[in-house]
User: Which sequence fits this backbone?
């Protein structure tokens, strides 16, 4: 039987992509960032790419069942290294943790 996830919190990563860096960015996201977060109980939920408006171009959301999972991971050296690397591939970076709500959240 497959495990089920009841999302209660979102880790939201908001940023603009650096032009011309897409191949290295996607390699990092798919082979490093996403697997590391999933290993710690934060699962990729959805990714938005904005083409209009004043908000960041990219919004990646990872969900967890409890706030403690998110808070503990954000204090690890692994996260600090991943976040530093994400900043190398982006500008206008910010992150926040919110209570889960389906659909688009700011």
Assistant:
């Amino acid at each position: 039987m497959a495990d089920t996830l009841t999302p209660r919190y979102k880790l939201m990563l908001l940023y603009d992509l650096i032009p011309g860096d897409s191949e290295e960015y996607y390699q990092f996201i798919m082979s490093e960032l996403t697997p590391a977060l999933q290993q710690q109980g934060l699962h990729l939920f959805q990714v938005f790419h904005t083409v209009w408006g004043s908000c960041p171009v990219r919004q990646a959301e990872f969900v967890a069942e409890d706030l403690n999972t998110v808070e503990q991971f954000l204090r690890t050296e692994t996260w600090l290294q991943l976040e530093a690397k994400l900043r190398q591939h982006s500008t206008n970076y910010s992150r926040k943790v919110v209570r889960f709500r389906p659909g688009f959240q700011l």
Q: What stands out?
A: The CA atoms of residues 2 and 98 lie 26 Å apart.
